[in-house]
Amino acid sequence: MVVGTILLLVVEALLYFVVLAGLFRMRHRFGLGVFIAALGTLHFLETYLAAILYVSLPLGIVFSPGSTILFAGKLSMLLLVYVREDAAAVRQPIYGLLFGNFLMVALVALMRQHQLLEPMAERLPDFKLMNEMGGLMIWGTLLLFVDSIAMILLYERTGRWLGNRITLRVWLSLAAVLTFDQVGFYLALKFFVGAPVSVLIGGWVGKMIAVAIYSLLIGAYLRWGERRVGGADSPRLADVFDALTYRQRYEALLKQTGRDGLTGLLDRGRLNTEGPRELKASVAAGRPMSLLIVDVDHFKSINDRHGHAMGDAILQLIAGRLSATMRETDAVYRFGGEEFVLLCQGLPHGAALLAAERLRRDMAAATATAGQPVTVSIGVATAPHDGSDFEMLFTEADRRLYKAKSAGRNRVVGRAPEDLTVAPSRSGGFGV
Fold this sequence. Notes:
The chain is of the alpha+beta class. Helix content is 66%, strand content 10%. The protein is built from 14 helices and nine strands. The protein is elongated.
């Protein structure tokens, strides 16, 4: 009888670990959510069995397979997540269980307010059990939160003493934490269901047996379980989720194509493709479209004096300010080197000059804050007045940029006679 009980417990632990570890191993294919959902599904069963189902062994040892196999297994799986992933991954199931339990208790409290019918007297809801279950689940999850933090800290601390002896580290961490947990959870069992002291002692013995089993299984998994993950283990069975994932990644790749590697802005190839198309659409709709060319002043000297790393940082800062300052509908491109191009649909020439001046001032202020004051020169052209095709419009903006640089840099040049040149005045304001 005793041998049969222990054998059954071992089989239960093996089934629990093999299935959940298998789902965890496939996280690179399906994502971690499948594993987390399966872990959470068993949480209710774990608490239910811990409250009502007990088995006995010699010497008065009484414990619940729910608490012994399922809860000890859950902590083991959380430790496995931490070891193979990181703290950001392991907190997901912990917080999910906590909030899910609070939600369950709140919903049960509300549902008790319904006026109940009695079509089947023998199937009336047992709200007393639900109250006990809710209390146990919340208390158990709060303990789980503390247990998980303590377990991870212990696992890290034992690494100083035991090094790469992973199985021993796992065993020590689980044994210490589950000893604390057994005391804490027994207090709740005593309060809600009147569990005797024998449950405290027997539960601890059962959990220590489970710790020994799970430690060996985790050690084996970490040694042999993921040798081929992420390499030759490519998916062989396609399903709808593979198709959706492929499409999502394909669309993300398309969005990244045509991006400048340093700044993340659209690149010159995208400008050559999209510029003529956007201008054609604006002209057909009778809308203005302004093109701004922004050039960093004396950029070569920045690289010469401070190195290319500083030059790259300046370009990244300017790119960020361009994206943040302009409208969401404006497109920002890195044309090459220290030059940037902005396409502004529906922006007339006067408004484009004001926007360019705002950019010029913003760039000087932003780079001064960063410790390296840098100025920019900007040439502005607007269709259809300055050109009805893209090449003509770009050439005119480039000509005005050259004029701004020839006139002393750090200024905006637009179309005469509206706003020929906007440059800093000696009084600190801006003159035309």
